[in-house]
Amino acid sequence: MQKYIHVYVYGIVQGVGYRYFAYKWAKRLGIKGKVKNLPDGRVEVEGEGEEENLKVFLDKLSEGPAGAIVEKLDVQWKEAKESFKDFYIF
Q1: Which of 28, 47, 48, 73 is most buried as measured by Cβ atoms within 10 A of its Cβ?
Q2: Residue 36 and residue 65: Cα distance in Å, rounded?
Q3: pTM beyond 0.85, yes or no
Q4: Which residues carry out catalysis?
């Protein structure tokens, strides 16, 4: 079943390859959506895909790439709107 997640990632997550890391895992897991840096230092992630794949994706987002220090994820789950055609980095 398709689900949607909206995630704010807190910690040292900018300047460490976090967006590319998220992109790589989204593509591997068949997740569509986007990732972008926010001016306050957080990273915002939106994703749509199979619920089990999104759970794996969240595990990966909480680990982050080498050099990142992920303090917490603020996650909201919703029904998928199927509004993305691919996964994008902004």
Answers
A1: 47
A2: 15
A3: yes
A4: 19, 37
